[in-house]
């Protein structure tokens, strides 16, 4: 064996058999189920104008401020490799005037995303997602339908014992006073917080809930929770979502600490956690984003969706002894097993 002269960049990987087959199984099954739910596939570019992500995801988020791969062209334009797919789909939805057609509209997109993350188990710089978006649906039943679809995909893959965590991020009306209340609390405990969190107080206080530092997590146990100060409309919306979920099936846990790391989320947010993974155990997550289409220059159209992490889902399947070979021709299964 020779010492390789070139190796794959940190945070990327070569996907070889039988991993490829398991991933293809995830994608095939999801694609089939999404078709049954009347979702249409959309292929959007792997890079966009940087400005789109800054506006959509939020300037003060870790994704935009630290984790994007950006590059320029000869004309001085700035582009970024997509760190997530929702912004691109929303951009395409506006650019092609898809909002003029009847609502709601359902799209999905499958492909690689890129984030300059600190490499660690379960975190990759190039990672693969199945991204699902439902546009033009304001009613709480849509939240429940999207969550049920997400759980349906995992169930179809044979994954068991998953935990669905649910929270509400409120709206512009209830989030502003909450933000002030949270900042007041954080100022009181500022000395005990890590440097990142102290920085977040000024720029994006809600992000402190993403912090993995034990000292911060301990202090945040006593922090005020948005869920208890929701405005009447958000409260009602959340109650309805829970009611529909109760009828439709997927069990959930309320977790007021679930705040997705993107600014565009409003109201329902959710995460699906696999017990077989370590610290990076979220295999699917999403939420509602009622202002995003408008923020990206479109009409005021509500939206919601989720992303499934293909890498982590595949790892969770592997650890559960699931090969995912069901879609392969018999001969290939024989060769692989
Ligand atoms: Zn509200
Ligand atoms: Zn911290």
Automatic annotation (TrEMBL):
Q: Which UniProt keywords apply?
A: Aminoacyl-tRNA synthetase, Ligase
Q: Note the superkingdom of the native organism.
A: Bacteria
Similarity comment: Belongs to the class-II aminoacyl-tRNA synthetase family.
For this entry, the protein name equals Histidine--tRNA ligase
Q: Where is the Aminoacyl-transfer RNA synthetases class-II family profile domain?
A: 29-329
Gene Ontology molecular function, alphabetical: ATP binding; histidine-tRNA ligase activity
Known InterPro entries for this protein?
aa-tRNA-synth_II, aa-tRNA-synth_II/BPL/LPL, His-tRNA-ligase, HisRS-like_core, HisRS/HisZ
| Coiled-coil regions listed in the entry | none
Enzyme class per UniProt: ligase
Q: Which Pfam families does the record match to this protein? A: tRNA-synt_His
Q: Does the keyword Zinc-finger apply?
A: no
What CDD domains does the annotation carry?
A: HisRS-like_core
Q: What is its EC number?
A: 6.1.1.21
State any GO BP term from the record: histidyl-tRNA aminoacylation
Residues annotated to bind L-histidine = 84-86, 115, 129, 133, 260, 264-265
Keyword presence, Transferase: no
One cellular component term from this protein's GO annotations in UniProt: cytoplasm
Lineage summary: Bacteria, Bacillati, Actinomycetota, Actinomycetota incertae sedis, Candidatus Hakubellales
């Amino acid at each position: 064996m020779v010492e390789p002269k070139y190796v794959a960049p940190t945070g990327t990987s070569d996907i070889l058999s039988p991993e490829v087959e398991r991933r293809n199984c995830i994608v095939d099954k999801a694609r089939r189920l999404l078709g049954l739910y009347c979702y249409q596939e959309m292929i959007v570019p792997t890079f966009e104008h940087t400005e789109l992500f800054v506006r959509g995801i939020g300037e003060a988020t870790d994704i935009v401020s630290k984790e994007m791969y950006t590059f320029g062209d000869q004309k001085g334009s700035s582009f970024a490799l997509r760190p997530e797919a929702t912004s691109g789909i929303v951009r395409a939805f506006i650019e092609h005037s898809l909002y003029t057609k009847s609502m709601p509209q359902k799209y999905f997109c499958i492909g690689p995303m890129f984030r300059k993350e600190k490499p660690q188990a379960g975190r990759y710089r190039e990672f693969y997602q199945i991204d699902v978006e439902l546009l033009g649906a304001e009613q709480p039943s849509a939240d429940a339908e999207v969550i049920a679809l997400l759980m349906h995909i995992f169930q179809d893959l044979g994954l068991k014992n998953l935990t669905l965590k649910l929270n509400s991020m409120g709206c512009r009306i209830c989030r502003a006073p909450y933000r002030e209340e949270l900042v007041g609390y954080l100022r009181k405990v500022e000395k005990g917080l890590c440097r990142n969190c102290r920085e977040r107080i000024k720029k994006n206080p809600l992000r402190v809930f993403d912090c993995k530092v034990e000292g911060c997590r301990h202090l945040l146990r006593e922090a005020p929770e948005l869920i208890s100060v929701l405005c009447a409309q958000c409260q009602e919306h959340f109650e309805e979502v829970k009611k529909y979920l109760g009828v439709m099936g997927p069990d959930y846990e309320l977790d007021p600490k679930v705040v997705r790391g993107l600014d565009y989320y409003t109201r329902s947010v959710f995460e699906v956690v696999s017990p077989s993974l370590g610290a990076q155990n979220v295999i699917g997550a999403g939420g509602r984003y009622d202002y995003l289409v408008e923020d990206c220059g479109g009409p005021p159209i509500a939206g919601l969706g989720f992303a499934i992490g293909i890498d982590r889902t595949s790892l969770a399947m592997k650890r559960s002894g699931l090969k995912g070979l069901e879609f392969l021709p018999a001969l290939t299964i024989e060769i692989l097993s």
